[in-house]
Structure prediction request, 429 residues.
Amino acid sequence: MVLTSDPKVAREATGLVVPGVGAFAACMDGLRNVGAPEIIAARYADERPTLGICIGMQILFFDSDENGLHQGVGIWKSSVRKLEAPILPHMGWNSVEPASGSTLFHGVEDESFYFVHSYAARDVASGLGTYATHGQRFLAAVEDGSLSATQFHPEKSGRAGLALIKNWSKSL
Amino acid sequence: MSLATRIIACLDVDNGRVVKGVNFTDLVDAGDPVEMATLYGSEGIDELTFLDISASATNRETTYEVVARTAEQVFIPLTVGGGVRTVEDVDRLLRAGADKVSVNTAAIARPDLISEISDRFGNQVLVLSVDARRARTPSGFEVTTHGGRTSTGLDALSWIEDATQRGIGEVLLNSMDADGTRAGYDIGMISRIREISSLPLIASGGAGSLEDFAAAIEAGADALLAASVFHFGIHRITDVKKYLSEHGYPVRMSSSV
Prediction:
């Protein structure tokens, strides 16, 4: 496993994880500086596995309205919008409704995962959508061929999260 | 299902050792924060908070190591507070493996610190820790420092509203009146803050009986922090969760994987 900003390494890795904490626009700026949107799109086209986490999931969508409207990588054509919920951020452990046939949630269908976010996508046209609810129903994860993403943090979701990461790495 | 009420254990750490009331018989080294964090993690704690009470710079270095060692072993959210004065302090703690940092005294002294941190790392990393007690301020609750010994004259409600505007992601509300009493959380204070804040609210100070935890949820807390009742083994984390679950409150039960 390597931490890289080298486009060639990221482009050709067996599996690529796009993690992230921070604001949508800042994250997109950082990714553009290293040509990451093209790398993610090329890997998707060649069916090379990529996993986006939290903001790393959101940037795969068309746009987000976090602090103004900002364009994302746009692999998925729907939008990321602020959640309508009485308490924000959505912070803590929540259960999910795993998509049937999900690889990521195999064996952890009934577990809870750790979320920290105020924005989310509501739907995705391609692939399998897993949902969660906080104020309203939103996309907790997407599995679209080689491209997977989770709105929650599997790396902070205890044993259930580690099992999910193992499910992803076994699929590489 | 909905979002579970979080149960948070707080460890006071000085020079790499847990201090203040630890009385475990099933730990080899009851003063090792990493071992305690691992134990609580295995018992199903939802989140951990380290409060760094180190006075010297050398001791602070030890804290970074403790945070790093914990983050390598316990894969749940970790908040670190105590002595956070600059954006650089936050950067170092996040790099060491903390997920959130809490600010208290330094933000009172210089409120711009809040926006400096949230502009760089986002609101979600920043917890405003408020040590409040009942006093003759407009809301009836005053912000204190130094464990309740020093008055700031600042009204707790106004301070939370001000900090929210500046950019925080969560409020940790410590009752200085209830702290250490095990007589229950300050329910009146929790409900008063809940009325004015739509941020996640952590209740702290006074946890004693299992009913106390339920009462704080009823008052509007999203998360319940406790220290001595866990450290002294008065309640196991599983007991708190079982009690809350049986009384209809959503909690995360121990993972079956």
